[in-house]
Amino acid sequence: MKKLLSIAMATALVATCATGVAVGAAAIEAAPAAETAQVYLVPGSWYDAEEKETRYNTVEGATALTAEEKAGLNFAEAQTVYKAGAAGTELPTPETEHTDAEGAPFVFQGWWYIVNASVTYTETVPETREALYLYADFRAALSQRHEPAAPSAQVGQGDKNFMEVTHDDGTKEYLPLLVSGTDQSGKSEMGYGTPVQFSNEYFELRHNDRIKVYLTNISEEGGDEEPTAYPKRSSSGYVVTFEANGSGTNKTANYLCDDLATSTKDGAYTMAYHHSDTMTFRVYIKVETSGRLDVYLEPKA
Fold first, then answer.
1. Is 9 inside a domain boundary?
2. What is the model's pLDDT at position 141?
């Protein structure tokens, strides 16, 4: 789901007196204390792959902003924004029809907002002097906030292979990669005696998610006893091929691109999900003998 943050900043108007200007003897009344500003609830949206349209979550019983009240705010026309109520009151539970690949509903993890560049979760309406927006955190069972999904300890022949997905708010998810065969020639055997590839179950990607791939014991010499970031750096840099299906109707490059700034910064190659919609994919990753990656994202139909 997209995490949009819109903050209205109040500007204090300060009165000053120029040198030589006479000031009356009457006392100047102090300005009244600023009232608590409005807090808004943004339950968010998700992409319905079957209907191929964006759907919006709701907050039962809450008061929605009118079109006039929402005018000028940075939200989609169909997105409903609600009033949160008085400071200190308990926040409601939003609702969603979003389900995972197995049909299990996404679970509400709490309302969050940004304070001092950090994500803060709250169960009550915060006290604030500025307009504040609270965003609903819905997650699949794979990535509960209180218990992040961990890499599989035993995959294939005892190897540990996974993807690290970093979201815009800095939270991370670790998605296991399973080992399977591939009939494509020229792919690395990686100690298995036959060409292999890595894949996973369906998972969700949101705009600006960054992906790193960690694999274990995939070199021909059987090295990398601990999970190691791939692709390996070559003399020409990091090399990844974003593949397309046979007909060319689905191109991974439509969803992923090189995140070279991050890759250069921490020494591990990173892919960025640049599509504007939140979508669900299965990934297929093949490793060339040279250490380069071939990556294919298959959207859920």
1. no
2. 58
Read off the pLDDT of residues 119-150 as tens digits, 9 standing for 90 and up.
Answer: 788 999 999 888 888 989 887 754 444 433 33
Give a yes or no: residue 8 inside a domain. no
**pLDDT beneath 70, residues of the chain:** 1-36, 101, 116-118, 141-160, 180-196, 217-225, 234-236, 261-267, 289-290, 301
Taking only the tens place, the pLDDT of each residue in 228-244 is 888 877 666 778 889 99
pLDDT of residue 137: 87
On whether both 139 and 166 belong to a single domain, the answer is no
pLDDT score at 22 = 33
Specify burial of residue 263 (Cβ count, 10 A radius: 0-12, 13-18, 19+): buried
Q: How far apart are alpha carbons 25 and 134 in whole angstroms? A: 47
Tell me which residue range forms the domain holding 76: 39-143
What does the alpha-carbon distance between residue 202 and residue 206 come to, in Å, rounded to a whole number? Answer: 13
Angle at 64 (CA atoms; ends 59, 70), nearest 5 degrees: 130
Kindly give, in sequence order, each residue whose CB lies less than 8 Å from that of residue 38, ignoring residues fewer than 6 positions away.
83, 84, 131, 132
Instruction: Decide: 207 and 275 in contact? Cβ < 8 Å.
Output: yes
Give the angle 262-265-270 at the CA atoms, nearest 5°: 30
**Measured CA distances, 29 to 14, 17, 26, 32, 257 (Å):** 14, 16, 9, 9, 59
Check whether the bond before 231 is cis (ω within 30° of 0).
yes
The pairing of beta strand 237-238 with beta strand 233-234: antiparallel
Helix, strand, or coil (residue 149): coil
In a domain, 7, yes or no: no
Bridge partner list, 124: 90
Q: Provide the token pair at 89.
A: 């009151």
